[in-house]
Task: structure prediction
Amino acid sequence: MQGPTEILKAMTKWLFAHLGIALFSLTVTAIVLTVGGIYHIYETILIYTNIVLLLPTPLWATIAWVFLSGVFIYIRMSKSQSLSPSKKPKYFKYCPECNYGINVKLPNIYCSCGTKYLEKCPNCNKKIIRDFGRICSFCGYNFPTKPKTGQEWMAR
Ligand SMILES: [Zn+2]
Ligand SMILES: [Zn+2]
Result:
């Protein structure tokens, strides 16, 4: 007859095995998506993993269930993202005057409004990863809208 302790032990063992697989898939996914800024989610999960491993087993198992569901949802989301034939580029040249971005690979240097495209955030120097929104995805910096020449953005 199995007591609650045995069931819990078996559960923990199962969790360990599946956690390994989940983390492996996550690692692969993270490597693929590193450039997309999704990498920090993986780092966060790793930090949480370190925390929960220090906790006593019953609490650990509870948290692991929650954690695993999170991993599952995350993997499902990543999969649906990679499966959808998205032709959206990863990086953009962005015109803050028009609040509009184009594929960074396009040869255009100036927007049709005459403003020089931004390729990097003037504040944190990270590449622009979306084609709308005047606020930097990384540091929250508000891109200037009325520069004197447009050249000073690229100076840094
Ligand atoms: Zn423009
Ligand atoms: Zn920034």
